[in-house]
Write a structure and sequence with these properties.
Elements: H1 15-21, E1 31-38, E2 44-46, E3 54-56, H2 58-70, E4 75-81, H3 98-109, E5 115-119, E6 133-134, E7 137-138, H4 140-157, E8 161-164, H5 171-181, E9 190-195, H6 202-208, H7 228-240, E10 244-248, H8 254-263, E11 268-272, H9 274-285, H10 291-305, E12 309-312, H11 315-322
Parallel strand pairs: 1-3, 1-4, 1-12, 4-5, 5-8, 9-10, 10-11, 11-12
Antiparallel strand pairs: 2-3, 6-7
Length: 323
């Protein structure tokens, strides 16, 4: 048999050649950096399970955002951690709450930086659940009022995008209606449409101080075994007015992301969550993997599966590498 005419290795012979024919590309604008803001001044407390990530007071947060903008990163998503928590998540929709203050501070100092706000209640409730608890369960419809009120306060503070992450039924419609009635018809909604009840969120719960004080979130977040249900959730959110969709976590759910990319034309996000980040960091610190290469490979896999942008704690080091 004659040797095949096709030799795919011809297109792999050098880095310039590989770069020329590369199908999936990363750029700093593909990344959104999650940031955690707390009350106080001069606070920069490292999160033990997430090396290189911090709870930051407003002054430190603004300095961080200036660095993010200088790197050309696509934007940030804010998670507020108040001193006071109660059963009504009242600090979540307080116009002078920590998240609302943070949005104003960032927009004053770095107006060109895209600011997304996480719209949920778990950081603000004393019990750590994502809504109003009635007889041991989260009351879906009562929670919608809190979410809508929070989204409006975020928009008034200057948020560019609001991102509901609670997984309540009907939350996108409630938020869209509230934003429109308040005059914020131009504010898009990035829906955490397929958010799974994942075990990969552990480090985040330290970072956001949001662990449930009883039970778990499986009655409202999705079952990891389900794929078709994710598409149903996405269909519903689009019907209710979502402008963009998110899959969370990212790498354990690349199949869901690919299904969404094949089905929808809207922008898609994926969240490389805390557990994904921390496992890579732990393996690298033990010398088991090459941090830079695994970081870029993991982000590339998420883009390749269909994400237009990625929420990732690697945003800054990855931006420095690829720039």
């Amino acid at each position: 048999m004659p040797f095949p005419v096709d030799r795919p290795r011809r297109l792999r012979v050098s880095e310039p050649m590989r770069r020329l024919v590369r199908e999936t590309r990363l750029a700093p604008e593909n990344f959104i950096l999650p940031l955690f803001v707390v009350e106080g001044e001069g606070v920069r407390k490292e999160i033990s399970s997430m090396p290189g990530n911090y709870q930051m007071s407003l002054d430190e947060l603004v300095r961080e955002c200036e660095q993010v903008a200088a790197l050309g990163i696509g934007g940030i998503i804010l998670f507020g951690i108040p001193k006071h928590k109660d059963e009504l998540a009242s600090e979540g929709y307080n116009p002078e709450g920590i998240t609302q203050q943070a949005v104003r501070a960032i927009k004053h100092a770095v107006p060109e930086l895209l600011v997304i706000t996480d719209v949920c209640n778990c950081e603000y409730t004393s019990h750590g659940h994502c809504g109003k608890v009635v007889e041991g369960d989260v009351d879906n419809d009562a929670t919608l009022e809190w979410l809508a009120a929070a989204a409006v306060t975020h928009a008034r503070a200057g948020a560019d995008i609001v991102a509901p992450s609670d997984m309540m039924d009907g939350r996108v419609a409630a938020i869209r209606e509230a934003l429109d009635e308040a005059g914020f018809i131009k504010i898009p909604i990035l829906s955490y449409a397929a958010k799974y009840a994942s075990s990969f969120y552990g480090p985040f719960r330290e970072a956001a101080e949001s662990a449930p004080q009883f039970g778990d979130r499986r009655s409202y977040q999705m079952d990891p075994a389900n794929a078709r249900e994710a598409l149903r959730e996405m269909d519903l959110d689009l019907d209710e007015g979502a402008d963009m969709l998110m899959v969370k976590p990212a790498m354990p759910y690349l199949d869901i992301l690919r299904m969404a990319r094949d089905r929808y034309e809207v922008p898609l996000a994926a969240y490389q969550v805390s557990g994904e980040f921390s496992m890579i960091m732990a393996a690298a610190r033990n010398g088991w993997i090459d941090l830079d290469r695994v970081m870029i490979e993991s982000l590339t896999s998420i883009r390749r599966a269909g994400a237009d942008f990625i929420l990732t704690y690697f945003a800054q080091p990855a931006a420095r590498l690829i720039s």
